[in-house]
Amino acid sequence: MDKPLWLNPHFLPLLLTIFFFPPFPLQPSLLTALQSDYVRHPPRKVVVTQHHRSKSDPQQVHTSLAGKDYMRISWITDDKDVPSEVEYGTVSGRYNAMAVGDHTSYHYFFYSSGKIHHVNIGPLEPSTTYYYRCGGHGPEFSFKTPPQTFPIEFVVAGDLGQTEWTASTLSHVDSKDYDVFILPGDLSYADTQQPLWDSFGRLVEPYASRRPWMVTEGNHEMEMFPIIYPHGFKAYNARWLMPYQQSGSTSNLYYSFNAAGSHVIMLGSYTDFDGDSAQYKWLESDLAKVDRKKTPWVVVVLHAPWHSTNLAHKGEGESMRKAMEDLLYKARVDVVFSGHVHAYERFTRIYDNKADPCGPVYITIGDGGNREGLALVFENPTSELSVYREPSFGHGRLRVVNESRAHWSWHRNNDSDSFVADEVWLQSLTTTESCWLYPGNTDGSMVNKDEL
């Protein structure tokens, strides 16, 4: 069993960073030096989203994948007598199936949550729109299940928060269809102010109720308080239940899931990860089960980046990298996404801090719209490992076209529109024969930065 979070040796440096090292201020001269043709905007105010339905009506509705052919519907009611059941079907207003699930609630100091419902529905058909109603009350919702085969498109946006920039990001995301939303930590930025969890849930409901949202925790989800809440993540675990049990994990802080021919591993930066930890052993086992012939793409998502040339949160992911990098490298993981640093940065394929054609492509995308602003200061000169970097709000899209090729694009928020500022074609490592025949003899000098 993992030890309390506040006893973790990695916790104190993180706590000090959170309280004593706020994000870098906006400096016009620095903006000019970074990119002369685009003026970055300052952080915008927090958007507080109110509840306008009845106490029995569902609010904060969101969906997530819950194992093969199943989806989880999660929502909250103020009325504690509403049943945890979902009616659903493929025709609007006609529900030919019903599933019953579980519910929970929690207290945090003087705050008491509503009734939090979690219901798994299925088995479901792929690429199919389902209509559903929660608890027998309120409006009808609908979602579309992911495809069974390629192509499949993931949206990736970290450090989301609930500001006007967040609303802009979500609007841009919604302007083009996708299959699964991936969030690499830092969801609501409630930071112990529990009503902000409710506000966040209402803000994202129009999006999260229509496509599965798969999330992992960040530092702003900890909400740890020694002795009283020593393990942290009380609100996060109660509200954002992920399919950890279906993937053999014992913790909601790390898990994996399959979508089409992609295996996505969501790791926890803020629970134990060293060689004798439960997370490390689970990751080792999970990677060993992946059949790359059936699942050619393997993607890892975590919060604190293992590689970054930004001065914000410098080195906070290093101990996790040292503990787990070999597992990812030997398994030939294709891409690693992270958040935490409020900027965008894409690296080439890396292993052991050197370019390596058999290592993952590392991408930092902690720019969803948080209230703390952007991390503007990058190291100079630029590392040869860093291909593109920019401190702007935005989101990314990973479109896996087939077994061998995927297209990655990063979309900068330009207020009224979304601009593709960086893109690259990725080649699955399953198609790189040398990475499997000669795992110990790789040469990063041959990496092509336009197609990785």
Describe this structure in words.
Keywords: Glycoprotein, Hydrolase, Iron, Signal, Zinc. Residues 359-416 form the Purple acid phosphatase C-terminal domain. Its EC number is 3.1.3.2. A hairpin with a 2-residue loop joins β23 (405-414) and β24. With 452 residues, the protein is of the alpha+beta class. The protein folds into two domains: 5-25 and 146-446, Purple Acid Phosphatase, chain A, domain 2; 59-144, Sandwich (Immunoglobulin-like), CATH 2.60.40. The strands form five sheets. Strands 14, 15, 16, 17, 18, 19, 20 and 21 form an eight-stranded mixed beta sheet that branches. Strands 13-12-11-22-23-24 form a six-stranded mixed beta sheet. It is 17% helix and 28% strand. The protein contains eight helices and 24 strands. It has helices spanning 11-20, 28-34, 164-174, 195-208, 234-239, 278-288, 318-330, 433-437; strands spanning 59-65, 71-77, 85-89, 97-100, 102-104, 107-108, 111-112, 115-121, 129-134, 141-144, 152-156, 180-183, 213-215, 255-259, 262-266, 297-301, 335-338, 344-351, 354-355, 361-365, 386-390, 394-400, 405-414, 417-427.
